Structure formats: structure tokens, C-alpha cells
């Protein structure tokens, strides 16, 4: 199951995704279902959305009255609940509409890692401190002085049992301002199979371009089209060459979360 979080106004982005990384994945259409998630309040009296729904049949409308950053956790919760009730799946990929996914490579990678019904796979962070000001301010966060370990929100995978757990207990969860932080908090204490993977370039800003990336975040329409052309013409994500904007890290599970993640310049980590 692939959920792509979007807004009604982002039609050009959705069409770009349909024409790029979803198009690259047409060889395996029976292995996944994709849905673009939109708040229902945004589609009222919007004939463009009605036309889009009739043409593509790939929109998932959730009962959200205010499509804003502070409601992303609520939107995600609603989307998880909706697909848990409507579809059968083994794993769920959640991505943003400015993420580019090598879906075929991701499915192959899923076969190579340890299969687990409680899988939580992405780019894991355990040392982030809650912000008290600005767009990402978490004024309701009182659990501890750092966020609980969470997979960065540009893209992550959850096992079906975790999605069902979130869906069934949705009424009990605190909704934090950051969707990815919220998911990490909801799952804390469970027997989660955490998998940290540097091939998920899913932080608040991209680390560059690496041919090993399975997901790369914060991409414009032009950048998505360039990545698609590179893959379809040359078989690699980064043509003519790879580049790095910031270093990555390997999550050290032998240490406490606050000491988990050291970025090393010059490392070969994607």
C-alpha cells in the first residue's frame, strides 16, 4: 500500500508523480495500490478534483476540515484508519508528494531485509530535540527532552499490524504537530522492528543524489522529471554523476538514542 500525502491544489505534482516514478513501476502493478491523500474539506465544490477522481480513481479523501501543517498527524491517522478498513496489504509506504521513489527497487529491497509484521523502516532519528518555536514547534510535547526514535517523514514503511494498531487506537493518541514524530511516539513501547536505512533520503532537506537511494525527498517538479529521465534513459538515478550536500549516518543501536547518530564527512554511506 502506497500513501502519498498531498493537497488539492497540488495537481501538477500529482500528475508529475503519475508520469514519473509511478510510471516506472507499471511493470509490477499488482504488487501495490497507490492513493493520494487529500483532506475532504478542500474538494468541496472543486470540479477539478471531481475530474481528477473520474480520470484516475487514485484519490483517498479523509474527513479533514483544515488542511494545514499542524493537522498532518491527524490527516495521517485518518489515512491509516481508512486503508486499514478498506484494503488488505502486508506493508504500507507513506511518502510526501515532493518525494521521488524507486518503487521497484524498494520492493526488491523489502525482500532482502528481515520480513517482520511490526516492521518500521526508514531513516531513523533518536537524538532530535523538540522545538518550541516556529513552524515545527511542539508545545504539547512533554514526554522527555528529546523526541522518541522516529523515522523521518519524507518516506517510511510500516508493517500491516502496526497500521492496524494505530487505526484501532486512534482515539487514544496525542496528536503532535509533526506527523513523523507522532508516529514514532504512537509506536514507542511496542515490539517494533526498527530498521534504519541510509538509502532513505527523507530528512527535512535532501542529502544530495546517490544511485542507491530508494526514496529522495524535497524534490521539485523539474527535479522529479530529471530523475525520471535519468532512470529511464541511463538506468541510474543520478546522471551524469552522484553528489553529496550533507553527510549521512548509521544508527548505533548499542547506544542510547541521544548518542545514536553521528554524521561523518567523507563516509561512503549514501
CATH architecture: Alpha-Beta Complex
Q: What is the N-to-C succession of helices and strands?
A: EHEHEHEEHEEEEHHEEEEHE
Strand content: 15-25%
Using only C-alpha atoms, the radius of gyration works out to 18 Å
Per the CATH scheme, the topology name is: Spore Coat Polysaccharide Biosynthesis Protein SpsA, Chain A
Strand line-up of the largest beta sheet = 3-2-1-4-9-6-10
Overall pLDDT level: 94
**Number of spatially distinct domains:** 1
The share of residues in helices is: 25-40%
Shape: globular
CATH class: Alpha Beta
* CA-CA gap between termini: 26 Å
Structural class: alpha/beta
Low-confidence runs: none
Largest sheet geometry:
7 strands, mixed
Number of E strands: 14
Number of helices: 7
Cofactor: Mn(2+)
EC number: 2.4.1.-
Subcellular location: Golgi apparatus membrane
GO molecular function, one term: galactosylxylosylprotein 3-beta-galactosyltransferase activity
